[in-house]
Amino acid sequence: MSRHRIGFWYRFAAVLAKPPLVVLFKRDWRGMEHIPADGGFITAVNHNSYLDPLSYAHYQYNTGRVPRFLAKAGLFKGSFVGTVLRGTGQIPVYRETTDAANAFRAAVDAINKGECVAFYPEGTLTRDPEMWPMEGKTGAARVALLTRAPVIPVAQWGANEAMPPYAKEKKLRLFPRKTLKVLAGPPVDLSAYYDKEPTAEVLREATERIMAAITELLAELRGEPAPAEPYNHRKAVAAARRKTDETGNKAGEDTK
Fold first, then answer.
1. Is the pLDDT of residue 252 over 60?
2. DSSP structural state of residue 134
3. For the chain, what are the domain ranges?
4. How confident is the model at residue 47 (pLDDT cuts 50, 70, 90)?
5. In this structure, are residues 49 and 173 in contact, taking their beta carbons and an 8 Å threshold?
6. Model's pTM, two decimal places?
7. In 3-state terms, what secondary structure has residue 244?
8. What dotted CATH number matches 8-229?
């Protein structure tokens, strides 16, 4: 695979991050052949640990096509963090705009310039109790349909065992030594949506295809079948509240 210009700041970050990752973790990396050698593209990645951006970035850095992550635009203003974000070419997201498509204009520009933009379509750490991907948000699909760039699904597993999400204590569990697994798959076929108006329904269908591809890869990594339907946190919370209300009402009736 051809090497692309990575730049000083990305190499500097790699010098700091790679040695401890290599020493502290084992690696099971597969599917690098699916990372495009040239041209702009999107990666869509599942998110199950505060540590997994490092795991995924390490994987893709070694392909020669570094990922440009999305981050709130405000983080780019001043400070050392802002300097590093700008230097490594991360992508500001302008969430204050009322135009949903315009919110991702920097991501579209980066892809059109031949860069890789990495999306976490879930938008946050998974809330699924079994750590499967949740329903995705439509940002990745929106940018994919605007640019017609390849969307490479990526699944990862193992970082969550070293740093479980939502644990009471955010500390690393390094022993026994964990394996960071990353698997990239072939591009998701979204061609059926290219000539359609990007309505909410079209974006939702495209997003479901992306999330299904990620989930299929994760099932391969985990060696177990995925759930039939992706987890929807809002529906789960609403169902839990209904159950609590019904239990409370039943208890009240029993005391009469």
1. no
2. B
3. 8-229
4. very high
5. no
6. 0.89
7. helix
8. 3.40.1130
